[in-house]
Design goal:
9 helices; nine-stranded mixed sheet; four-stranded antiparallel sheet; receptor (chains A, B, C); homotrimer; alpha+beta; transmembrane (chains A, B, C); transport (chains A, B, C); elongated
């Protein structure tokens, strides 16, 4: 019964750690220097340098629209003079963030569905006699379905497919010579949804001719959104001519980074562009290039379909947008963080017996009506609470 | 030798912090209230409100398929009556998450590769005499390659290119008037790979006509995946007619957010749609619109190529999917967290000398065979371990 | 005045927590075991297993290029024999990370802009008399604009549109039978920008024929980047034939995961592929498939436009790349972490009075010139700093 009451009473006792104080100036100064260091770290590094009081939004919303300008003339034995505009050499034409620019091409005009010999370049199409060409079988990595006959003149199976089959000759010069001078206009709109902040990489300017004349350069003109294709490739550390001609194409990444401190002025939030070649391996050896095929279909007067097949080589550009915006966080939290630092400093109260301060403590003590007067001390005591508990103990003893 | 043994023995001493207890009810109650507050915070806020026991998966996998419906009739002086279906006005046609809808267009039919005068709108094409037009030079931002002659009638260089060159007249009315009524069906499949959870934004319903008749509305019909294009644009806070006609196009973002508590019922995990205009600057001024060109190629009976060039204006829609799923985390961890809170509460044992409890402590002590009996105490002592060490010390003294 | 000086002096006092030591071997061993456990956890789990000393880069940059190979022959009553190559059955043709493969199609050739009866399948086009067909009104979910007349023979309104209207018959067999054997070559280049690390999923090999012959298999050949389309679909747990024929299409996700420990050898950083069906609901019921329409435009000798409309069904493949790279972090931080663990171990100095060690302490004390000699002890004391403060207190008492 008495135990229960005791237990219940003791629930409301206040327990705290006991501190000891060393009146050693050397150690004390070191200790204070350490505390100052922690404080300086928190205020200087976390708050001022790293801006720990700011809220971060890394869920950037981005929309990229691209537009290419420039024309190039090609002169091939098959096709003669041909003028290429952006509507032809950019695929897809609608200005997406990933696009392909044709620099070389192989044209196979007037293909019709018919029977003809498979290309000698296709291993599975080789034959010596008709029995090597099973009728109805697909030529692996080939151009059609085997008809069952072996064409002696070429040593390949006869196939049903688009005839004549594509010529497998490799281009050694850039057909679209002027491709280096094409310009890429990148419009990038971003939004930090948390802060309702929108911005574009195109400067708000009243000067209409600015966008017509400017050209991006990382130091001279870092905010112009128009890039010369040749420069854009060269900035990756690879030569445009090598990529377009020898390597028959490649993939280039344009990285747009928006790291914005939204506490600062609107005009200080600007993108930083960087350029990398994407299709490289560790030893910087490039892979076999980038090409694909597409066809244009026509109908003759009899209504029969024929087509022109294009195998195109070129440069693929991937525009990748990353970024984060920071903004001052809730004042309440900020206030709490300030307080807590302050509080931590104030937490370790005077615990050492010393004439002036402990006299004050004793005076406070005396004014508390519900507490017994402190007895004459025999033992050492180290602070207010230690003292109280000491009294109690000695009393019980 | 003895020192070594002593050191070795002392390795297995148990060190703990020393506590003092204040038998002050006011402070004690405050202290307990503070502890209760921390406990309430952990249980109420971290566990119940913030669901701290749940695991998060923010690597949402998403696939978006779109389909547009609706037809529009245009009547131009050049082309006459023309009916536009989704196969024509949506680019690309395969229903991707980023697509473009034509609302206006300028058609330049029957272009052939030939020599003709450059457009008067191109500054670099202006000339006074033949020497202004260097043969073989590209007209900057123009339509072809200079032939070296100056066409007096227009005051521009003669070029080799697709002739006649595109007419630069601006549209002032929306040609595809009915574009506002086109419907966009957005199928969005998501997956939280960590929890093997899949869902679609299309309701599982046995009612076949539901999808044929419903139309999304943020309050009346928030789960219908079919959107009227005009509404979709207007919900961004911009007028469809303004965007499509005056501003000659724009970009709209449709954000689908999946924030799912997977502890709840499957039917509670639903997407929230929001709509923003992407091509705006801070002052909400819109940029110059969105357009691009594409061409359709034909061959005449003689096998010569000609084409129809389209410059199309319109609305680009970017569908962006974000989201995260939360699910109850490992029971072991949960158990551990519960235990640790429990443990923390239990950690601060009775350390104050008080008749009942410390008598128990002494009894326990007596039962330990390897320990000397506690001597009569002279000094104060504050707890079990303090007591033990005190005994030892006095014994050694 | 004296108070001020006292306060100023006391600022440089060193405060620390007071420890007590229990010379109880059982408790001591338990305590050491607990400490060893914590240490083992930190070293074994955090450092060795979880590699807590490594820095993480989860902002992977990725570029995906795809290429399909294979041909298929179709034989339809309308179109006769037709050979499909990758340039036809892959949309878009430029090898993006999201692409569509045609497996079935409905061809509507020779459509011209004209007046004809609406399809019976369109509910809004049904009519009994001319007044049911308001002139100039769009047929909802239909193919054109009502002309105002009702065609008695079909019971539908006459429309102006592309005539004849598309046939609404459903395919029940896979037209591109061989689609299962198409191969998908996925080139994936990744980069961890923080560590300047690039890699491709295509092995660096001198064996030219490796890529020509290999075929991906999760156990036999996990690093070959060429996938058989049928396998790719079947690995999602759904049958290719079902998806391509019965369900008339679907969407498949190919997830490429790069989780690389860049401390290890370059060759150890390899992608892991996984395959999921994206267009499923919770009950694994598939949705109505995936289809879209596109048209090819032609001009007749009179210059009039006609077209062939294709409604295509098929399989959409979304290639998603995720990953993170880890690398050993700053040596300074690592050193600090090691030190702090070391320091924590060293922090709790001998605090117990014991002949050897405390004699050493006293010796050190004696050598400090600015400190009074330790008095003969009467009371117990527990450590260096306690002792010092005790001295001071007794002195002041």
């Amino acid at each position: 019964m008495a135990g229960c009451t005791n237990f219940f009473l003791s629930v409301f006792d206040y327990k705290t750690e006991k501190y000891v104080i060393a009146k050693n100036k050397k150690v004390g100064v070191l200790f204070r220097l350490f505390q100052l260091g922690v404080l300086a770290y928190i205020i200087g590094w976390v708050f001022l340098t790293k801006k720990g009081y700011q809220e971060k939004d890394d869920s950037i919303q981005s929309s990229v629209i691209t537009k290419l300008k420039g024309v190039a003339l090609t002169n091939t034995t098959d096709g003669g003079l041909h003028l290429w505009g952006a509507e032809d050499y950019v695929i897809p034409s609608q200005g997406e963030s990933v696009f392909f620019i044709i620099t070389n091409f192989i044209e196979t005009p007037n293909q019709r569905l018919d029977y003809c010999a498979e290309s000698i370049k296709v291993p599975d199409g080789h034959c010596r006699e008709d029995s090597d060409c099973t009728e109805g079988e697909t030529v692996i990595a080939g151009h059609g379905i085997k008809s069952g006959r072996c064409v002696k003149s070429t040593g390949t199976c006869e196939i049903y497919g688009w005839c004549p089959v594509e010529k497998h000759h490799k281009q050694h010069e850039v057909l679209l010579e002027k491709a280096e001078n094409f310009t890429v206009y990148i419009k990038n709109f971003i939004r930090f949804p948390k802060f309702q902040f929108s911005k574009s990489n195109v400067l708000d300017t009243n000067n209409d001719t600015y966008l017509k004349r400017c050209m991006y350069h990382d130091t001279h003109n870092p905010y112009c959104p128009i890039f010369r294709l040749g420069d854009l490739v060269n900035w990756t550390g690879h030569s445009f001519q090598d990529m377009a001609a020898k390597a028959s194409g490649g993939a280039v990444g344009v990285l747009i980074q928006w790291n914005c401190d939204l506490d600062k002025d609107y005009s200080k939030c600007n993108p930083v562009y960087s350029f990398t070649r994407l299709d490289v391996n560790s030893n910087n050896s490039v892979t076999s290039g980038y090409n694909f095929r597409y066809a244009r279909y026509f109908k003759d007067t009899a209504g029969l379909t024929y087509r022109t097949l294009y195998k195109v080589y070129g440069i693929r550009v991937d525009i990748m947008v990353t970024g984060e915006g920071v903004f001052i966080c809730d004042m309440i939290l900020l206030y709490m963080m300030e307080k807590s630092t302050f509080y931590r400093e104030k937490k370790f109260e005077c615990a050492k017996y010393d004439s002036l301060r402990c006299r004050r403590n004793k005076d406070i003590e005396r004014k508390m009506p519900h507490k017994e007067r402190a007895p004459k001390r025999k033992a050492t005591w180290k602070g207010k609470f230690t003292e109280l508990s000491t009294e109690k103990s000695t009393a019980l003893n």
